[in-house]
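Predict structure. Chain length: 253.
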Amino acid sequence: MAALLIVLGVILLIIIANGVRIINQYERGVVFRLGKVRGDVKQPGLRLIIPIVDQMRKVSMQIVTLPIESQKIITKDNVSIDVSAVAYYQVVDPIKAVVEIQNVVSATYQIAQTTVRNIVGQSALDEVLSETASINEKIKTILEVSTEKWGVFVSTVEVKDIQLPDSMQRAMAKQAEAEREKRAKVIAAEGEQLSAAKLGEAADIIAAHPIALQLRNLQTLTEISTEKNSTIIFPAQFMDTIKSVKQFMDKEH
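Prediction complete.
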């Protein structure tokens, strides 16, 4: 009798041991009892289930980094480019993630890859290069709707790398160089325009005050004689300048 009790005790301990489950902090447990999901989700810690009758599936609640491999896409303006991206998603409903979809990771990857191809293919090359944030948001919105029924929340989608054909890179480099040259010419023309306007104003002032030109000539000669130790030859008109200045000064006194 005692031996029977010992055997029953050992069997009972084995059954209890087989029903013990440890759920990590980042996990949740979904329990199936005779094939049907129990309503409550098992929280982290030490949990007991009924062996044979119950089965538990653990679901990670961590944010998953999902790299989307580079794929060749033809844009709206018929340019072939290679685009890779990365998506970040998290399971928010463990029961849906287990029941509604066979492999939530594979399904999320496939729908993300397809969505990137569709959105980039509907955009022109300039839009893909300059409006990346808008394209990311469009992809994220579509993924949110598609994965919501699987209990998955997509937090971020980023187009990571865009590779252009060599011929397109050379064409864009020439375009950028031409754009810079155009800007340089426009800036130079604007400088000439401002310079011509100022020269016109100076000419009007000199026309109204002829002595100003004579004074400017004398100032130039003074600067030359100060900086350069050399002989300066005064043309005849400069002699008239000196005479005009002297008459002006006498008149002022």
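Summary: Helices lie at 2-18, 94-99, 104-121, 125-130, 132-148, 166-208, 210-227, 236-252.
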